């Protein structure tokens, strides 16, 4: 039995000072004789435990913390001093209302911490150059190809100079986390001594000092020689610098909501803004962010020569349709690799396929399950051998612009259609659309389209004529000759 310190104190007092027996002490205090025997000689103390309880550790999730905060807020609203939630009552409610699996002792330190009435105050902090970087995720809304879409912002901030780095991903998964971290360290051209962030995707279980990191992140941290420091639950103040960065980017970079064609375009915009931020001077500092960063960069841990692969990789076979599967999504590769074993590398926003370390294909990564993504160039050689498939081939119908497809259906034969597909690959669909707009509305002619795509307008400047000076004819000589002839 685990007892409170006040009971332990009485057991020891009755035994040492009054010489009472186990039976008598047990009767007076209302506890078992076994408990008295355990603690009366001082060989055991109630605040130290041996062994483990067998319960699953780290059951205090963010949701549990928010529920406890709600209970405490109810007490504050009622403002009845002697009717407030105790740790025991909170545990009872969590078990009854939310099936909380943890024990009461698990909650006691957290409840005591959350009940502390500390006014809002900030401790001035100072970091040495190259000492630390803070990391956090944030969400934002953009228009990608005119469609509203949510993206995840991976934010990094130097603790000394306050220099920033932000990159956008579709998902907050481990490969995005590692890729963002690698991109940020490359941007700063070095690593700090330690990196501070919350559980994110680097933690398998636990929080704060009890966090256990994922194997991939553990290897990455070892490779770049920085130490890991995790925040406690509901402790945003422990990484306040980067918390402020998330809001700064939303308000100052993503307003108005940007309209981009791809995530690469958005990340280019974010990088430009990050570099521009180096001209900013923070209130109370004598130097700009960029000037402080120049001082700080000399204190970074140098980047290792080996570039860490942040991808999630697998080995798979190319199926009969020239497709490989990654995370329940299929991507095309050149058809002549059907049946071969290839490596598929999944990064945060893209997929790469390699054969014997030679890159075969790259696709934007899709998170739409059971979808298929084709590239026309991967099938064009096969379509040229089987031209009649050109109108019904999925790689054609799902990649070709509808206007180009409509033009192709007006061509004289499937072979002409194949020539159109080849022009799309060689010149790009945008240029083909421009050529169609210039002169092929009336007749569907692949020859005319080819000439429009390949013609070059060469302006040959005319040779500049030199000014010719004309000497006037001396007619007096003719007059003299005529006069002489008449005299004779």
How would you characterize the overall build of this protein?
The structure is a single chain. With 488 residues, the chain is α/β, with parallel strands linked by helices. It folds into 4 domains: 54 residues; 168 residues, Nucleotidyltransferase, domain 5 (2-Layer Sandwich), CATH 3.30.420.10; 62 residues, no CATH class; 74 residues, no CATH class. It is 39% helix and 17% strand. It contains 18 helices and 15 strands. Strands 1, 2, 3, 4, 7 and 8 form a 6-stranded mixed sheet that branches. Strand 12 and strand 13 form a beta hairpin. Helix 1 packs antiparallel against helix 2, helix 2 crosses helix 3 and helix 4 packs across helix 6. The termini are far apart. About 3% of the residues have low confidence.
Binned strand content? 15-25%
- Beta strands, count: 15
* Amount of helix: 25-40%
Going by CATH, the architecture of the largest domain would be 2-Layer Sandwich
For the report, how would you describe the main beta sheet?
A: 6 strands, mixed
Which residue ranges are poorly predicted, with pLDDT under 50 across at least 5 consecutive positions?
A: 52-57, 204-211
Mean pLDDT metric: 84
* Secondary-structure content class: alpha/beta
Predict the CATH topology of the largest domain: Nucleotidyltransferase, domain 5
Shape: elongated
CATH class of the largest domain: Alpha Beta
Number of alpha- plus pi-helical segments: 18
Radius of gyration, whole Å: 38 Å
Count up the domains. Answer: 4
CATH superfamily of the largest domain: Ribonuclease H-like superfamily/Ribonuclease H
Q: N- to C-terminal separation?
A: 163 Å
